[in-house]
């Protein structure tokens, strides 16, 4: 069996300026790592997450950097010495003992170098010498390629977002960002093991087992494979000769335990242990992989003439005629089937959790994914301007039942698809990514890129990304990962690909139109407006909001926080390139001003910019669920943050939920109540939306509450109804005529819908007009706190009168937040600490009244 030496840990990092304008820099470095982080640890730069410090470290990208490590070998172990770099960012020459081994040019490729004859006993010196991005781009005509934010990035195979985006500053860094090891390999190695469900029916599952080996010898080899169920019981074994460098077998499993997404079943994981041996029986190498027994398929069905789907398609094409040119072409659904069952995909987009991902620990990944699962997510989309996330991300998604769609790593631009050097590198990158991820049951489909062809027709022979999708990414998926669908781009389908009635659609594609609405309307109709963007499947729906105040204090001073011009917050919000006379932050500020009561308190104004994200995400989720017959899923832009930003994310950079997170969580429970006012006749519809696997039956009640009512006061009007809603559907369980309720539809009353059944309870509060217009009476909202030994506890929240937007503030994760309380109600809110029990922090309650 092979011996491996970990070459991570402490290295020496030196930087020099070819122009001589800067003094050389030498610091200790950590590998895996990035230059920026090492310079921060070494006291050379201030924390680039804080204030304007990001601007003060832009010089780093123009320096020439070199990593150096010396290591001793008392002996050279048996085997063939191979140096493995699992990730180098990006352009670097590798030297061992002064001998150049080769060059790297892609952040996402694993590099291996044979070092027999170069490695020696005693002292060895390993050097990684980086070229600047500017140096690597000399002679490249990147000016010919349109791209969002900056166009030189299209030639550089590294995480695109850190060239600067509308949620992260520019951080072009360098580093050995994933592990380095020296392996002494046997004469034959396991190159790859791929296990997938080939077919699944009532008789069982056919599991395809694919082994690839690397050979340095011609003698016969044998493979031993043992498959175990989730409890460790052997369910299949094979001992076969290997002819050539591949072996493919089929295992038949009777009554397999199926892997399901969260909310649809359990997540059992099988294992396969593979050992390759010589003809004499000597074990050369062993590898264990996990997999889940499950199938995935994307189903796209044309709307039947005269169906309600066809009626909805007609209405959407009339409403969004600027972005839908499909004419008389039938609309078509977009649904994900797992094990033959349709899955409603509810979730958000994942971006890199740090500009320097090498410094992120596994606990942070686990925390973020736990939050996603707790919010009833079923899907995460790994966005194409980021990275292939590490194993901890994927193993947690497998364990939690979070489905993932993965973009190939190109975003928002035209790429040099005819450049041979670039396509060679992309091909190696795509193969690396496919092989790394294809055993994970959580991965359900691939996208060729993000938004490169958004404004083109799917039939256009020259849409950006088509050549790459047909000759590289799509072809490799068909060859290396036949168990999953491949979509050429996201969004994709129809004329143009952005259109809402065919395929997938990014509402982010019309974000500027949404901002224009904010600027030019009083927003009395804001519910109808934000409920109108229904599509067959929405992989991106944008909704911004500020982080909690305690998070903002980590990246700005109190003086900057209290600045009435919000300059620092605007800097950390970044901006969209299409907003030349406006900004994303100004749009968010305007949204807060129009939807919430005016206040001179700066901190309160910031908090209300978080409320609006909560309000609008809940509205959008409910609208998609009410139209469940038409849509297959909704993913928000975006889930997490890459930097200390104030903008699109639902969870901030430090791992704390923002207002939008709680809005989605409230609207994503398996069974929800939702009140809607019909736009045509003014009637009030009481919807019940059911994502359980069985019918949901229960009792509902709609009543009118006066905003100055106390606990002992009776409802001014009420009506009860029964409901029975089929699984995976929604229904208007009761309808009330406008005339019956018209006298209560003002700013002194709210409508409250409550439902109850075996599933539990839910509530929806509805009022006419904007929240800012509500005539709220003092609520006397208060909290009582019970703590536990782990740094968490339980809150009991009460109010004497109706309390609107009860906000809990503190460095904790709350089970609910930004909620309403009815008069006399007592609500229990569990909470926990990210930091742990060692730090006790205060919790504050704020409500509008």
What does this structure look like?
This protein is of the alpha+beta class. The chain folds into five domains: 3-184, Galactose-binding domain-like (Jelly Rolls), CATH 2.60.120; 186-291, Immunoglobulins (Immunoglobulin-like, Sandwich); 301-667, TIM Barrel; 671-773, Immunoglobulin-like (Sandwich), CATH 2.60.40.10; 782-846, Immunoglobulin-like (Sandwich), CATH 2.60.40. Helix content is 19%, strand content 32%. A seven-stranded parallel β-sheet has the order 25-24-23-22-21-27-26. Strands 3-2-4-9-6-7 form a six-stranded antiparallel β-sheet, with helices on one face. A four-stranded antiparallel β-sheet has the order 1-10-5-8, with no helix packed on it. α7 (466-480) links the parallel β24 and β25. The radius of gyration is 28 Å and the shape is globular. The mean pLDDT is 96. Keywords: Glycoprotein, Glycosidase, Hydrolase. This is beta-mannosidase. InterPro entries: Beta-gal/glucu_dom_sf, Beta-mannosidase-like_N2, Beta-mannosidase_GH2, Beta-mannosidase_Ig, Galactose-bd-like_sf, GH, Ig-like_fold, Ig-like_GH2.
Task: Set out the fold topology.
Blueprint: E1 3-6, E2 9-16, E3 25-31, H1 35-41, E4 64-73, E5 80-85, E6 92-96, E7 99-104, E8 111-114, E9 122-130, H2 133-136, E10 180-185, E11 188-201, E12 204-215, E13 221-228, E14 234-242, E15 246-253, E16 270-278, E17 283-291, E18 296-299, H3 308-319, E19 335-338, E20 341-343, E21 345-350, H4 362-374, E22 379-382, H5 391-400, E23 403-407, H6 420-437, E24 443-447, H7 466-480, E25 486-487, H8 511-520, H9 526-531, E26 538-542, H10 549-552, H11 558-561, H12 567-573, H13 584-595, H14 602-626, E27 633-637, H15 659-667, E28 671-677, E29 684-690, E30 696-706, E31 717-725, E32 729-736, H16 738-741, E33 749-757, E34 760-766, E35 782-787, E36 793-798, E37 803-809, E38 813-814, E39 819-821, E40 826-832, E41 844-846
Parallel strand pairs: 21-22, 21-27, 22-23, 23-24, 24-25, 26-27
Antiparallel strand pairs: 1-10, 2-3, 2-4, 4-9, 5-8, 5-10, 6-7, 6-9, 11-12, 12-15, 13-14, 13-16, 16-17, 18-19, 19-20, 28-29, 29-32, 30-31, 30-33, 33-34, 35-36, 36-40, 37-39, 37-41, 38-40
Helix pairs in contact: 4-5, 6-7, 13-14, 14-15
């Amino acid at each position: 069996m092979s011996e491996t030496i970990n070459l991570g840990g402490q290295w020496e990092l030196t930087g020099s300026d070819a122009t001589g304008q800067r003094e050389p820099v030498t610091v200790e470095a950590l590998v895996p790592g990035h230059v920026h982080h090492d310079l921060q640890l070494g006291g050379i730069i201030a924390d680039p997450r804080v204030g304007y410090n990001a601007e003060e470290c832009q010089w780093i990208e123009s320096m020439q950097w070199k990593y150096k490590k010396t290591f001793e070998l008392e002996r050279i172990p048996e085997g063939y010495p191979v140096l493995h770099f699992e990730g180098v960012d990006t352009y670097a020459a590798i030297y061992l003992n002064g001998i150049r081994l080769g060059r790297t040019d892609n952040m996402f490729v694993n590099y291996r170098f044979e070092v027999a004859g170069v490695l020696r006993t005693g002292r060895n010196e390993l050097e990684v010498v980086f070229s600047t991005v500017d140096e690597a781009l000399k002679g490249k005509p990147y000016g010919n390629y349109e791209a969002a934010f900056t166009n030189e990035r299209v030639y550089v195979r590294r995480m695109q977002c850190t060239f600067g985006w509308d949620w992260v500053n520019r951080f072009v860094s360098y580093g050995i960002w994933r592990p380095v090891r020296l392996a002494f390999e046997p004469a034959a190695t396991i190159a790859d093991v791929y296990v997938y469900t080939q077919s699944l029916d009532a008789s069982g599952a056919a599991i395809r087992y694919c082994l690839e080996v690397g050979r340095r010898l011609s003698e016969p080899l044998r493979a031993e494979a043992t498959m175990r169920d989730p409890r460790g019981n052997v369910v299949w074994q094979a001992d076969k000769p290997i002819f050539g460098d591949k072996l493919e077998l089929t295992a038949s499993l009777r009554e397999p335990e199926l892997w399901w997404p969260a909310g649809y079943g359990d997540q059992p994981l099988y294992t396969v242990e593979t050992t390759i041996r010589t003809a004499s029986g000597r074990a050369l190498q062993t590898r264990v992989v996990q997999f889940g027994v499950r199938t995935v398929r994307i189903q796209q069905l044309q709307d039947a003439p005269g169906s309600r789907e066809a009626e909805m398609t007609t209405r959407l094409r009339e409403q969004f005629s600027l972005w839908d040119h499909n004419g008389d072409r039938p609309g078509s659904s977009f649904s994900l089937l797992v094990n033959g069952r349709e899955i409603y995909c509810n979730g958000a987009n994942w971006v890199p959790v740090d500009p320097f991902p090498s410094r992120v620990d596994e606990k942070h990944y686990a925390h973020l994914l736990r939050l996603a699962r707790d919010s009833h997510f079923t899907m995460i989309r790994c966005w194409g301007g980021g990275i292939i996330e590490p194993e901890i991300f994927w193993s947690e998604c497998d364990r939690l039942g979070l489905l993932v769609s993965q973009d190939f790593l190109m975003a928002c631009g035209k790429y040099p698809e005819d450049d041979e050097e670039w396509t060679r590198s992309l091909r190696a990158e795509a193969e690396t990514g496919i092989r790394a991820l294809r055993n994970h049951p959580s991965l359900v489909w691939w996208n060729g890129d993000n938004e490169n062809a958004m404004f083109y027709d799917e039939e256009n022979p020259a849409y950006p990304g088509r050549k790459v999708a047909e000759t590289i990414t799509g072809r490799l998926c068909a060859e290396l990962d036949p168990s999953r669908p491949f979509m050429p781009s996201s969004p994709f389908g129809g004329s143009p690909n952005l259109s809402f009635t065919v395929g997938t659609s990014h509402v982010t594609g019309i974000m500027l139109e949404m901002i224009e609405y904010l600027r030019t309307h009083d927003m009395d109709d804001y519910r109808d407006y934000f409920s109108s963007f229904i599509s067959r499947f929405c992989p991106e729906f944008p909704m911004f909001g500020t982080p909690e105040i305690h998070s903002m204090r980590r990246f700005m001073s109190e003086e900057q926080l209290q600045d009435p011009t919000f300059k620092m917050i605007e800097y950390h919000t970044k901006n969209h390139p299409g907003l030349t006379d406006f900004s994303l932050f100004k749009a968010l500020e305007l949204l807060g001003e129009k939807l919430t009561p005016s206040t001179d308190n700066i901190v309160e104004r910031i908090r209300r910019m978080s409320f609006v994200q909560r309000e609008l995400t809940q509205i959008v989720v409910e609208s998609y669920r009410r139209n469940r017959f038409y849509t297959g899923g909704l993913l928000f832009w975006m889930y997490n943050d890459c930097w200390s930003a104030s903008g699109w994310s639902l969870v901030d950079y430090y791992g704390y939920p923002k207002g939008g997170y709680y809005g989605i969580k409230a609207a994503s429970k398996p069974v929800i109540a939702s009140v809607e006012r019909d736009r045509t006749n003014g009637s009030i519809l009481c919807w019940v939306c059911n994502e359980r696997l069985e019918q949901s039956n229960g009792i509902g009640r709609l009543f009118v509450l006066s905003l100055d009512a106390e606990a002992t006061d009776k409802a001014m009007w009420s009506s009860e109804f029964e409901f029975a809603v089929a699984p995976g559907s929604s229904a208007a369980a009761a309808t009330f005529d406008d005339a019956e309720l018209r006298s209560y539809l003002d700013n002194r009353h709210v409508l409250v819908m409550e439902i109850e059944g075996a599933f539990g309870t839910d509530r929806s509060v509805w009022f006419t007009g904007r929240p800012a217009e509500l005539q709220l009476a003092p609520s006397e909202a208060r909290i009582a706190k019970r703590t536990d030994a782990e740094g968490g506890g339980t809150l009991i929240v009460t109010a004497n009168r109706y309390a609107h937007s009860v906000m809990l503030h503190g460095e904790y994760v709350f089970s609910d937040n930004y909620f309403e309380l009815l008069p006399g109600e007592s609500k229990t809110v569990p909470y926990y600490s990210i930091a742990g029990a060692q730090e006790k922090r205060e919790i504050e309650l704020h409500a509008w009244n």
